[in-house]
Amino acid sequence: MVVKILTVLALASLTQGIQVEKDQVSHATQTEEAQAQAQSDKLRMQDKVANSIENYATSDAQSMKYQAMAQLQQYVDAEDHKKAEEKEKREKRWSSILHRQKESLLQHEQALKSEEKELQKMKLEKQWQNSEAAKEQTTAASEVSNCAGQKSALNAFISSSVSHASCLKSQLGACITAETMETRSLACDEPSALWQKKCLADYATEMADCAPLGVDWNAMRQGEKGTMANNNALQRLGEWCNFHRALGKIQQNKATAPFVLLLSKDAALSKDAAKKLSDFGENFHQQEWDFLQVDPIGTPAELHSVLVKADSAEKLQKAMSQMKAMPLHKMPKAVNDAGTAKAVSWTAGVSGLLERESSDCSLQSPALLKPKQDDKLASAFR
């Protein structure tokens, strides 16, 4: 009985132990499952967070990418625009260069045609001069025989072109010794005012023999301005120097004739000019005068025809050397005011002033400016 009871108790104790163990195992299992579930939940949460972070990072990166591309596109567009502008500028430059080259070729072609015309003109003029020279030699040979043994009281210096000088010589006649003086065309066409000024100064230095005190450029320009005014002033300087240098030649050759007629490129003469002027010189030789303006036109009058006493040439040249070079037509009044020489004028109707240089140098020329005919000495011997 006792054994049976002990056996029952042992079985009950064993059963209770097994149940406890089962409960413990079941509790452990539940704990593990809970831990596994928690771990699983944690992992899911981590995955979710990671996915959220990844999605956020991807979205932000995408946004940054778009912004970067937009900014980069601005630079690309700007660069394309710059290249397009540079291409357009290059095309314009080349177009301008081609245009200038075309204009230059046209100008060169026109210059060649102009030179060809000028050469043809010079050729025809040379032929005419040779023809006229031959006629003149024939006429002169005939007239010289008539002048044999005669001594003229008048010589002449002509500052003009060859053709015009030839015409004036024919008007004077074969008995008058006439010398043609070389005339130069003076001009300054420099690219700037500074170089233009230097050009004028260089000419003033070159002309120091006839303008030792320099040039009154303001007077020479006569109120004009610009390149044309400078070139007109240079032409007037040339006229001043031609007259001054002619006086030097008169002084050297004063023994050949007591009176000398100075004629400009604009002068015209009558056939009896030489005789009347010779008579004037001889009739009024003892009167006080150094040079005579013949048939003056305008106030002050251009010195197109001037009769000079050979004995007064040195005095007159010295008087001109004591003043700055000025327009030649102002010189008579200047020497009269200074008392260094005596200038007078006479309207004799033997000389005229042309509007332009012309081979027709007679008083019948259509280009002739007519003087006032008062038939008296305008300012002589007062």
Please render the helix and strand layout as text.
Layout lengths: L1 H146 L6 E6 L2 H11 L4 E5 L11 H14 L10 H5 L5 H26 L6 E5 L3 E3 L3 H11 L7 E4 L10 E5 L3 H9 L9 H8 L4 E4 L4 E4 L13 E2 L13
Parallel strand pairs: 1-2, 1-3, 5-7
Antiparallel strand pairs: 3-6, 4-8, 5-6, 8-9
Helix pairs in contact: 1-2, 5-7
Q: Can you characterise this structure?
A:
There is one protein chain. The chain is an alpha/beta fold and 382 residues long. The protein has a domain at 153-369: Spore Coat Polysaccharide Biosynthesis Protein SpsA, Chain A (Alpha-Beta Complex). 60% of the residues lie in helices and 10% in strands. The chain contains 8 helices and 9 strands. The strands form 2 sheets. A 6-stranded mixed sheet has the order 2-1-3-6-5-7, with helices on both faces. A 3-stranded antiparallel sheet has the order 4-8-9. Helix 2 (162-172) links the parallel strand 1 (154-159) and strand 2. Helix 1 packs parallel to helix 2 and helix 5 (227-252) runs antiparallel to helix 7 (313-321). It is rod-shaped.
Neighbour order of strands in the largest sheet: 2-1-3-6-5-7
Low-confidence stretches: 378-382
Q: The biggest beta sheet, please?
A: 6 strands, mixed
Helix fraction, binned, reads 55-70%
- The helix/strand class is alpha/beta
Number of distinct beta strands: 9
Treating each run of at least 4 consecutive H or I residues as one helix, how many helices? 8
Mean residue pLDDT: 81
Explain briefly what this protein structure is.
The protein is an alpha/beta fold and 382 residues long.
Overview features:
382 residues; alpha/beta; Spore Coat Polysaccharide Biosynthesis Protein SpsA, Chain A; six-stranded mixed sheet; three-stranded antiparallel sheet; 9 strands; 60% helix
